[in-house]
Amino acid sequence: MSVHEVQPVLEHLLEVNNLTTRFYTEEGIVYAVSGVSYKLDEGETLGVVGESGCGKSVHALSMMRLIPMPPGKIEAGEVLLQGRDLLKISEDEMRRVRGAQIAMIFQDPMTSLNPVLTIGFQITEALKLHQGMNDKEARARAAELLDMVGIPEAAQRLDDYPHQFSGGMRQRAMIAMALSCSPEILIADEPTTALDVTIQAQIIELVKRLRDKIGMAVIWITHDLGVVAGMAQRVNVMYAGSLIESGAVKMIYGNPRHPYTVGLLGSLPKINRIERTKLYSIHGEPPDLVGLQEGCPFAPRCTYAVERCLHETPPLEPIETGHLVACWEKEKVKKVQ
After folding, report:
1. pTM over 0.85
2. Considering only CA atoms, which of 121, 95, 123 is closest in space to residue 179?
3. CA distances from 297 to 24, 136, 222, 241 (A)
4. Nearest-CA neighbor of 184 among 15, 43, 63?
């Protein structure tokens, strides 16, 4: 590049465009992720919510290129990290991205940690690979990281194996491992699901504190809308592998415009209700993603559905600045009081 050329200014840290992932099974094609697109800025926390099987985790694994192939296949899309498409770089280059630029905390720390390797070995491995540290430097940094995530006597615990840690401590060790190289993006895939409520609250506060300290962006995948309300600036709502509503947390929680989002928010217990009222429930069953039918995937369960919903898939389009909805009848949708 000549001295007269100016490099383009990148508006966003991460851009996901039309990400599409399929699984080819004996039962048929599983439409796991269908055309998901969104942007993430530096230091921002994005919540990704939806019921089990809606594609939340698969979309994150696709971005990290951790989908087992076969049966999985990333059919289309771009994952642009600072302008570089992660779906087009070599596997060696991707290995250098994982951990160093994008790190991931998985749902179950017991299956994510190698049971036959010490906690210290598993943390120092990334430090030596990405940071070029020697054994002594990596071990000192690993102890510092364990101390940072609240594990007592951190230096002595480096030689322990995962089974010697409690569930909460294993998840803290996973967070220490994920943060070891100060990544720009942390993907947390339901990291508190297997933990009891008090430990959940501790882990959430820990991630918030470390996020503010390091300045990283966070993608928090969960089915817990309360957690998203407390820690995210924006939220993506997924259903049947598609992004069906997206916007600032205050917009989505205050004025949901997709019937599914309305149902999710209506099913939350509210402590300010004076009278005892039944929780709102979404009728019907979650869709079968094998051979997904045409039209809006939520139509069979939707009280607002019209004939068009059964045959045409609604596009994700803005209804106000920064608030996107995929629904043909969005003007009629009302929040459950």
Report:
1. yes
2. 123
3. 20, 54, 21, 9
4. 43
**Residue 112, CB-side half-sphere exposure with 13 Å CA sphere:** 21
- Hey, how many other C-beta atoms are within 10 angstroms of the C-beta on 95? 14
Question: Can you tell me which residue has the tokens 């559905």?
Answer: 305
C-alpha closest to that of 122 among 132, 112, 136, 108: 112
- Which amino acid, 105? I
* Bridge partner residues of 280 (DSSP): none
Asked whether the beta carbons of 259 and 327 are under 8 A apart, the reply is yes
Amino acid at 141: R
pLDDT tens figures, 8-58: 556 789 999 999 999 999 888 999 999 999 999 998 999 999 888 888 999
End-to-end CA distance of the chain: 58
pLDDT at residue 110 greater than cutoff 70: no
In three-state secondary structure terms, 300 is: helix
Q: Report the C-alpha gap between 252 and 128 in whole angstroms.
A: 43
Least confident interval from 21-30, 248-257, 259-268, 327-336: 327-336
Residue 48 CA to its chain's centroid (Å): 5
**For 160, how many CA atoms within 13 A lie in the half-sphere containing its CB?**
19
* Cα distances (Å, whole numbers) of residue 1 to 6, 8, 102, 317: 9, 12, 28, 38
Instruction: From 200, 213, 211, 258, select the one nearest 233 (Cα to Cα).
Output: 211
